[in-house]
Specification:
The chain contains 13 helices and 29 strands.
Length: 680
């Protein structure tokens, strides 16, 4: 017997097993009653072949007086009054009867579903002291007007059959449950904390906790590096370096080794998903497992402190290093998939990628960031200082920070991802990438100076495609494919309703209003802030985007921004698609805003719906009042519009109040009779 659905959908597996054991005991008890029954052969055949069909006929025809006597006679033959036992506890779901053979099961299923009843009714198995009292005391009688849910569970024979069955559940028309709310890109007047406005998206959950062996193992690995003596150097450092061999710990020490534990690896992935959404990793080539089991924990790579340096003739030695082994993809299906996915061995111009293009790239992030670094730049890809990379023992040039000649402790510049697709011909071979850096690793629990490194087959998501993924509209992929890929780990845009945005605007206006009360007594001045803004106070917003100076299409701002002014989402994504020092910086308050912190303002959307056609370069201001109303302001007066005719433009008639047009300029404070400042 398979329970595919139950009355309570939240039952755990343990409760379902207990319920199954209870059903088996009841079925065994019913089988004992049948064996001791003195009914005729026809009655036995009817009881065995009837099964669930007789149960449904009993429940459906109780109101039909023409079949009552026949059903009572069959029931009396199926259960003998001499074999009566104490009443068994009744269950809320239908309890199927045990079937002796597959033929009998097929007969019972056909009889159950082919009786022509409009609404199947449940049957509760019970025992009574007498057959004549069964119709009066039976608990299987149901009323057609009952509002309770009705559930029928089908039976398979044999009971251990793995084939699934479909449980049919009939609900009263007046008690149909409402459909679950679905999040869409349209604005709704719902609270901020409601299910329709709170994004239901969540990044993949972290892996189960992993406890490294105690005491941790120490595995010393030695890697040879070629010389870094070119001009400029591959590491962008001022001093060249000779060839050398370094050693580092590749064991299981969570503080010193190059092993990135599963929980730290998940945090590393989450930061990449949040701050670098333009690359979606289809296959992480750098993760590995220390066990052949399928569900074994996965580990990543991070830079580790160099323990010893050998064969160094000149130059400064590296301070941290790591060696990443890319194992061959042996699974035949995955091998065909990833071999045809990427154009291996082809060279592409750096910094330029097309939407949907797939490349094998290398990215890195610092595992610990100081408050100064958090305030200085966004959490995007960054190489360690003086990174030297070699692929298959050949040095590779990367775009990274450069050491400054005026101060060797400073490293400035932009960091771009490394595309290793041109160096790979097939995915069925093993490759090795070695890294040595000038980044000093401190011995603390925070991992200061350590960098996590990922080598993955990624797909580039263009700004326009990312815009559609955030709004969940105009998507090229099928919905099933998007759900399997978790929408490329792109969270939906958090859309605030008009009423919620209006409340926030009024709160912002109240906080921005300060009334100063001057007291003449003892020359004391007191400053108080009114809890409610007067009706005369107002705010001024611009309906132009600060990036493109055009009317905003999708107004967004940061969740933690201290302003109410919005900018256009599409322009924001386009401006951050390239690597720059101000990447992911808000154009109003200059705070860093990731795609997860963006919100769509319903108040700005309503303003744009009313005045978008009237917005121009000189007329784009909206005055928002304390009573919740707004109006589009007139044409903004520019400075040169106040210029008097003939004042410095070489034409027109000079008025009697005009200043002299010689090489002099009147002072800011004063009258015509004031002294003039001669411009030499």
């Amino acid at each position: 017997v398979n329970f595919h659905k139950s009355v309570d959908s939240n039952l755990t597996r343990e409760n379902r097993v207990k319920g199954l054991e209870t059903v088996r005991l009841i079925l065994k008890h019913i089988d004992d009653l049948r064996s001791s029954s003195k009914g005729s052969a026809g009655g036995d055949a009817g009881g065995d072949a009837g099964g669930v069909g007789s149960a449904k006929r009993n429940a459906a025809s109780e109101t039909d007086t023409s079949h009552t006597s026949d059903l009572k006679s069959k029931r009396s033959r199926a259960v003998s009054p001499q074999a009566a036992q104490p009443q068994a506890p009744s269950t809320t779901s239908a309890l199927p009867l045990k079937q002796p053979s597959s033929a009998a099961t097929a007969t019972s299923a056909n009889s159950a579903m082919g009786m022509g009843q409009s609404t199947p009714q449940p049957k509760t198995v019970e025992t009574s002291s007498s057959a004549s009292a069964a119709p009066q005391t039976s608990t299987n009688q149901t009323n057609d007007d009952d509002d309770s849910d009705i559930e029928i569970i089908e039976i398979l024979s044999p009971p251990s059959s793995p084939l699934p069955t479909t449980a049919t559940k009939t609900t009263h028309p007046t008690q149909q449950p409402p459909p679950p709310p679905r999040r869409s890109a349209r604005l709704t007047d719902t609270p901020i904390k409601s299910e329709t406005s709170t994004p239901s998206f969540s990044y993949p959950p972290p892996p189960p906790a992993y406890n490294p062996p105690n005491p941790p193992t120490v595995t010393t690995r030695t890697v040879s590096f070629s010389s870094d003596s070119t001009t400029p150097t591959f590491s962008s450092s001022l001093n060249p370096r000779s060839a050398c061999a370094i050693s580092y710990d590749a064991g299981t020490n969570p503080l010193k080794s190059s092993l990135l534990l599963p929980n730290k690896l998940h945090q590393f992935y989450t930061r990449l998903w949040e701050w670098d959404p333009y690359w979606y990793a289809h296959y992480d080539w750098s993760t590995h497992s220390q066990s052949p089991e399928y569900n074994a924990p996965r580990f990543g790579y991070r830079t580790s402190r160099v323990t010893s340096v050998h064969q160094l003739n000149y130059g400064q030695p590296p301070t941290s290093a790591v060696s990443i082994t890319l194992p061959p993809i042996t699974h035949r299906q995955d091998q065909r998939k990833y071999q045809s996915m990427v154009s291996w061995g082809t060279q592409r111009p750096p910094k330029i990628y097309r939407n949907g293009e797939k490349r094998c790239i290398v990215r890195s992030l610092p595992l610990h960031r100081s408050p100064y670094e958090i305030k200085k730049r966004s959490d995007t890809h960054m190489w360690p200082k003086g990174t030297f990379v070699q692929f298959q023992n050949n040095a590779v040039h990367i775009i990274q920070r450069k050491q400054q000649s005026h101060d060797p402790t400073l490293w400035k510049g932009m960091c771009h991802v490394l595309d290793v697709t041109p160096y790979i011909s097939t995915v069925s071979k093993e490759y090795k990438i070695d890294f040595c850096t000038r980044e000093f690793i401190q011995e603390n629990d925070l991992g200061s100076g350590m960098y996590g490194i990922q080598v993955a087959i990624c797909e580039y998501i263009g700004p326009d495609r990312l815009y559609n993924l955030l709004l969940r509209k105009d998507l090229e992929e099928a919905p099933k494919q998007l759900e399997e890929q978790n929408y490329y780990n792109i969270p939906p845009l958090d859309i605030w309703s008009f009423q919620d945005s209006l409340n926030v605007a009024l709160q912002y206006l109240n906080k921005a209003t300060v009334v100063i009360d001057d007291s003449d007594e003892e020359d004391n001045t007191t400053t108080t802030t009114t809890p409610k803004a007067p009706a005369s106070n107002s705010l001024t917003f611009s309906l132009l985007c600060n990036y493109s100076m055009k009317a905003i299409e999708t107004p967004v701002r940061g969740r933690n921004c201290r302003h109410f002014q919005c900018y256009d989402l599409r322009n924001f994504l386009h401006s951050n698609s390239t690597v720059s020092g101000g990447r992911w910086r808000c154009c109003v308050c200059e705070d860093y805003v990731s795609i997860r912190d963006l919100i769509c303002c319903g108040l700005f959307t309503r303003m744009l719906e009313e005045h978008r056609s009237s917005v121009t370069g000189s007329r784009n201001k909206v005055q928002f009042s304390a009573d919740g109303t707004w109006e589009l302001m007139g044409v903004s007066k520019l400075r040169y519009q106040n210029k008097r005719p003939g004042d410095g433009d070489g034409g027109g008639t000079k008025g009697e109040d005009d200043a002299p047009q010689d090489n002099t300029k009147r002072g800011r404070m004063g009258d015509k009779n004031d002294h003039e400042i001669i411009l030499l």
